[in-house]
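Before we proceed, please read the two lines closing this message. Let me know whether the structure tokens fit the sequence:

…
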Amino acid sequence: MYKILIIEDDETIAKTLAEHLEKWGYTVRCAENFKNIAEETAEFSPELILLDIMLPFYNGFHWCSKIREFSKVPIVFLSSASDNMNIVMAMNMGGDDFIEKPFDLNVLTAKIQAILRRSYSFQGNVSIMEHKGLILNLGDASVLYKEEKIDLTKNEYRILQCLMEHAGKIVSREDIISRLWEDDSFIDDNTLTVNMTRLRKKLDKAGWKDGIVTKKGIGYMMEE
């Protein structure tokens, strides 16, 4: 999995970010040497950097420009100082995105995934899928919503993955059954109905409601 460097002097925020990203398989380091961020960046060689503006010794703008002297690694600024001047400055210094504090961890995860995909052409190897706050981790077959894990059976997970891959489009019952029948277990129309009902109940119980729509006589769709 990809390496992320968190350059944030607030230890609580840095720890929360690190723990969240590590859940999704990222290798995370929190910067410690605020006197020489460039050196620590070069040594760790991350695929993405989360960078605060207000830091000890030198601010994030300074370190962004220094990092740009030797690396094109994507840099996402994280700051409560979200006025237009700071946003423009961040972009002019070489930043790739700007996220205002406080931020939603699920939104941040989705943005990180999108930036990594754009930067390294990983379209065919997306390891995390997100839709309306629901996060599916293909690496360990886990599903989370608002930091809470949702336990799904193998078939329920495959149904969810199939619908998320085609979000906004109708997926026929036949296509879903074909997707489920990847081993020797018998999957028929009634089995699909039972699995879909259980999946919806679990998602609803977790607070993710009304996201899967039935298209009568055709199939199902995950609304955009």
